[in-house]
Design a protein that fits this description.
This protein is an alpha/beta fold. It has a single domain, classed as 3-Layer(aba) Sandwich (Alpha/beta knot). Helix content is 34%, strand content 22%. It has seven helices and seven strands, in the order αβαβααβαβββαβα. The chain is globular, with a radius of gyration of 16 Å. The protein starts with 13 loop residues before the first helix and ends with a helix.
Length: 176
Amino acid sequence: MRKLKLDELNRPTIEEFQTQEKLPVVVVLDNVRSLHNVGSAFRTADGFAVEAIYLCGITAQPPHREIEKTALGATQSIAWEYFENSLAAVEKLKANNYQIVAIEQAENSVSLLDFNPEKEKKYAFFFGNEVNGVSEEVMQNIDTCLEIPQFGTKHSFNIVISTGIVLWDFFSKFTK
């Protein structure tokens, strides 16, 4: 077996990417502290061709050297918008008919294993702060809460790992 070279991967240019069909998903970073996590979320969002990333509250914004270190240019391909607070993002998304989905451990959460996206709906996945998770103000305004099953001793995944798991799960179910 031979590894493919970069020019054999047939990736779109930034211009081609911006016009291609996207997953009906907005990734929302709710007060994410780590600039490396922000950059990695951009790179993951690019990999799954989501519509946009919304950055809320204390979440850093491009351009920033520490974001670019892990984004590897994805801040140029993924549309993004900044909101002073997460509730403003919720309001805009609801006005545009997105399903507001928290990725969190909460009462009555739905296991990611049982989540089946509907093709006619658009989704906004809220990923929370590394310490406190999704903010209470967002939790009071969600349509549903998804929980990633975990089987080890730790109580959570890193936000970027969670983003990758959720986007892969959504992609694999939505594109069937």
